């Protein structure tokens, strides 16, 4: 058996890198990639191109779930976890070494290589979460799967805090010119340290008892994805929507609030900032201006970090509660809380920044409570010999319909409402309704016999 400490660290390290990578890439997509990889494009087209490459990972993730799920269910969890972490680490590290389109002869090749590396990241992430969840839960003592399942989930707040503290430090220590010249590469290169440590621990793992039993009983399926879709499509569909509200809440609380919170609160403030940057606003930009909270970016990042501390705390709190009350009942209660939060969204994220810190704390508390049990409930929906594939496909399909469009939809709703955010709350509440229905029609999985549950 794997030791408790080894299980905790080996499952935590991958998701920490996953979310660390997400934030450094997202920040670079806004701050530097438009100028470095699309220097000939207009400002808006360069930004859109940069975001399009960012979105490539969401296309790759379902493919990665099938690919790594196949190997995880057919050949074992250990080797697959090592492969996913190595793929993710190499892709992230190579982005930090990539020549930019501003270098002679790299105008076309640099963006293409960036797309390829981002696709590789997405493939790895498609298999990483499910493998980490199985590592934690298949090695958990009886009656503690939900508690052990919170360990890989804790990687999300840790990765967020690491990435944002790094960028806050860069913002204070480097000039904009230095950051553009070389500073942006450092966060990508530093990820290699986490990857090396993670690989060292994962190489020392032994296969879980659940998968050993699959091998012993000769229950390995020939094509896990085909078997999952043929015989277990209902739990795949249920798992996809069980995760939906979690994804929508997460991306609204991070990407959207950062955009909305740092947008100038008035046209005059926006014009002053544009004049200072040497890019005066056009008449059309003035006419179509949509106000935000007007909080300086550095200050809002600190507000987000405070909220994410609550995210981490309540991720850990959720495990014992999901064991006590059951995953389904507990998550139904939290989902009702997300619905209410969406309905009251405009009271915390309306004009003025005063109540925003309360909104961030409440939102991230709900995020921890809903995210924590997912590493238990999604794998528990599937038998051992298709568990890697089934949970990975459900998790990553939900990322396509929940995570990928969340920020764009929220921004479009904010603009459609002329600067009010009440429609963003309606969107969040609607996602909560769909998740509640999925939980309502799904059986309780708390007492699933993990080791003897083989299709």
UniProtKB/TrEMBL annotation:
<protein>
    <recommendedName>
        <fullName>Putative proline/betaine transporter</fullName>
    </recommendedName>
</protein>
<feature type="transmembrane region" description="Helical">
    <location>
        <begin position="355"/>
        <end position="381"/>
    </location>
</feature>
<dbReference type="Pfam" id="PF00083">
    <property type="entry name" value="Sugar_tr"/>
</dbReference>
<feature type="transmembrane region" description="Helical">
    <location>
        <begin position="7"/>
        <end position="26"/>
    </location>
</feature>
<feature type="domain" description="Major facilitator superfamily (MFS) profile">
    <location>
        <begin position="7"/>
        <end position="443"/>
    </location>
</feature>
<feature type="transmembrane region" description="Helical">
    <location>
        <begin position="146"/>
        <end position="170"/>
    </location>
</feature>
<dbReference type="GO" id="GO:0005886">
    <property type="term" value="C:plasma membrane"/>
</dbReference>
<feature type="transmembrane region" description="Helical">
    <location>
        <begin position="80"/>
        <end position="98"/>
    </location>
</feature>
<feature type="transmembrane region" description="Helical">
    <location>
        <begin position="236"/>
        <end position="254"/>
    </location>
</feature>
<keyword id="KW-0472">Membrane</keyword>
<feature type="transmembrane region" description="Helical">
    <location>
        <begin position="300"/>
        <end position="318"/>
    </location>
</feature>
<keyword id="KW-0769">Symport</keyword>
<keyword id="KW-1003">Cell membrane</keyword>
<dbReference type="InterPro" id="IPR005828">
    <property type="entry name" value="MFS_sugar_transport-like"/>
</dbReference>
<comment type="function">
    <text>May be a proton symporter involved in the uptake of osmolytes such as proline and glycine betaine.</text>
</comment>
<feature type="transmembrane region" description="Helical">
    <location>
        <begin position="422"/>
        <end position="441"/>
    </location>
</feature>
<dbReference type="InterPro" id="IPR020846">
    <property type="entry name" value="MFS_dom"/>
</dbReference>
<comment type="similarity">
    <text>Belongs to the major facilitator superfamily. Metabolite:H+ Symporter (MHS) family (TC 2.A.1.6) family.</text>
</comment>
<keyword id="KW-1133">Transmembrane helix</keyword>
<feature type="transmembrane region" description="Helical">
    <location>
        <begin position="46"/>
        <end position="68"/>
    </location>
</feature>
<feature type="transmembrane region" description="Helical">
    <location>
        <begin position="330"/>
        <end position="349"/>
    </location>
</feature>
<feature type="transmembrane region" description="Helical">
    <location>
        <begin position="182"/>
        <end position="203"/>
    </location>
</feature>
<dbReference type="InterPro" id="IPR005829">
    <property type="entry name" value="Sugar_transporter_CS"/>
</dbReference>
<keyword id="KW-0812">Transmembrane</keyword>
<feature type="transmembrane region" description="Helical">
    <location>
        <begin position="393"/>
        <end position="416"/>
    </location>
</feature>
<dbReference type="GO" id="GO:0015293">
    <property type="term" value="F:symporter activity"/>
</dbReference>
<feature type="transmembrane region" description="Helical">
    <location>
        <begin position="104"/>
        <end position="125"/>
    </location>
</feature>
<dbReference type="InterPro" id="IPR036259">
    <property type="entry name" value="MFS_trans_sf"/>
</dbReference>
<keyword id="KW-0813">Transport</keyword>
